[in-house]
Amino acid sequence: MKTLSALVLGLCAVLPAGAQTLADALESALARHPVAMSAVSRAEAADALVEAAESLTPRPLSASLATLNDRLGANRGSQEWELELAAPLWLPRQQNAQKALGASTREEVRAGQRALRLQLAGELREAWWAVAAARNGEQLAQRRARTAASLEADVIRRSKAGELARVDANLASSERLDAQAALATAHSERLQAEEAFRALSAMDAPETLIPEGVAVSDAASPADHPQIAADLAAVQLARDRLAVADAAQREAPELALRVVRERGARGESYASALGLKLTIPFSLGPRARQESAAARAELAQAEGQVALQERKLLQETGKARRELATGQKQLQLARERLALSTDTLVLAEKSFSLGESDLPALLRARAAAQDAEVALAREEISLYAWQSRLNQSLGVLP
């Protein structure tokens, strides 16, 4: 009997969609993900924030024009024109805080993209091995159905010849019907698994489902993990937002250049005057405290998320390593069980053909061999899946 290794690694057909590896599927899924599609716009917004922080003023310049006359009063032709050009001024520490916020926003966008890539990789890894399990299940069900049909034909022939009882023929027909029902279920499960993979990646699952090797990255820094890096970027962003809130306890002061032209009465010449005006707003009070408190709450949440994520990843990595070690032992036991059940089936078939044993004994031996084959396939797929999960917990991309 073939093992899953031959089923998984021995197929070489190329699908029109060209999905041959997990990396291919990941790139396809990422290109269609809504968050990834918005990455360019988010990066542009971060760049605009950096550009604004590097400008000479916190807000754009403004200009105002005013006029005053006495037409509704004495109407002697008194006229006054005033032009004012105002420039907001950076508060102490405000510009540096804004620059840091722009830089951390840009880094948070980049880190978020890497974390999204890892998240999609995890979903695709699970779908990848679900397809492998479903395909293997269907192949085993097909083999069982063919074997059951062949046995039924042989038993019916021998029953007609008087060598076996009619009840044996009915028993063989019942086994064939059960096998066909199991094949229909396995076929439906395979289609469902492939559709789930297609929905994630927009590509058909390849015929060659190649297992991943286990990455060795124990010495890597936790900050190198894409999810941890994204959480740390969120922490830095929250810190910079708090710094901006603390540096902007009041509205920006404003320096204005005033040009005034006026005349006292009709016929007189216009006189010009030039002046400066400095506007210093009072503290924002409750609004400033609200913004600072919101920023501090965001920072506390981001720092807590980093600690939570580190504990979660440590737990997932430990579990994956334990399951991987257990899977290797279970795989070896499943191979030994399959060898024993296969040998037992060969003996049962010889005994049945010689009339030394009855049909139920043969069916029991065949069921035991089929169970052993299914168990071996399940353990192999489980081992490959835990290899992928270990890579996922370590932050290793396909």
Structure description:
There is one protein chain. The chain has about 400 residues and is of the alpha+beta class. Helices cover about 65% and strands about 10% of the residues. Strands 1-2-3-4 form a 4-stranded antiparallel sheet, with no helix packed on it. A hairpin with a 7-residue loop joins strand 3 and strand 4 (about 270-280). Helix 2 (about 20-30) crosses helix 5. The longest helix is centred in the C-terminal third of the chain and has 68 residues, at about 285-355. The radius of gyration is 38 Å and the shape is rod-shaped.
List the helices and strands and how they pair.
Layout: H1 4-9, H2 22-32, H3 34-37, H4 39-53, E1 62-69, E2 79-88, H5 94-160, H6 166-201, H7 226-247, E3 254-263, E4 271-279, H8 286-353, H9 359-393
Antiparallel strand pairs: 1-2, 2-3, 3-4
What overall geometry do the principal axes of the alpha carbons give? rod-shaped
Radius of gyration: 38 Å
Largest sheet: 4 strands, antiparallel
| Order of helical and strand elements | HHHHEEHHHEEHH
Counting helices, strands and paired strands, the structural category is alpha+beta
Mean pLDDT: 86
